[in-house]
């Protein structure tokens, strides 16, 4: 693989990482399923959660509360191309989130989650890179607050 092909593969995978969180935060959450291969997997080993296949991913991410406001910050994205058609990545994330959002500005509080993703990618026959698997690692997490509750109840 020449350096330009490697660079383009890395950028395509980085773009998937960012597109994923933009769709969750600013778009239609169920649409993240389209960023995965047909047999793609999302998992959270902490509680044994595993969601496999685009239909299941669409239902899982589409079940998020309609009144959820979230913003994720992504950083330390490191993509490693492992072959012309496969890659892996590690990226850090911080999530700010509230449920019960009705508009306006919500007072900033601490993040609800801080963790990292481990991703594997596969290039399809038409040259498109997709997520084959995404694993969530969450060493810092707490409940999602509701802005209409006192701070003591939402933390």
UniProtKB/TrEMBL annotation:
Pfam families: SnoaL_4. InterPro entries: NTF2-like_dom_sf, SnoaL-like. Residues 5-135 form the SnoaL-like domain. Coiled coil: none annotated. This is Nuclear transport factor 2 family protein. The lineage of its organism: Bacteria, Bacillati, Actinomycetota, Actinomycetes, Kitasatosporales.
């Amino acid at each position: 693989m020449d350096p330009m092909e490697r660079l383009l593969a890395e950028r395509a995978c980085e773009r998937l990482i960012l597109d994923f969180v933009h769709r969750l935060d600013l778009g239609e959450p169920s649409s993240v399923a389209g960023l995965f291969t047909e047999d793609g997997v999302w998992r959270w080993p902490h509680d044994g959660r595993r969601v496999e296949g685009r239909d299941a991913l669409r239902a899982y991410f589409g079940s998020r509360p309609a009144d959820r406001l979230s913003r994720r910050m992504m950083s330390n994205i490191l993509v490693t191309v492992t072959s012309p058609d496969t890659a892996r990545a590690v990226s850090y994330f911080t999530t700010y989130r509230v449920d019960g959002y009705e508009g306006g500005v919500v007072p900033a509080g601490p993040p609800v989650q801080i963790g990292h993703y481990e991703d594997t990618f596969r290039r399809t026959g038409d040259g498109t890179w997709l997520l084959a698997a995404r694993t969530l690692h969450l060493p810092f997490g707490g409940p999602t607050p509701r802005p209409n509750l006192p701070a003591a109840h939402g933390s």
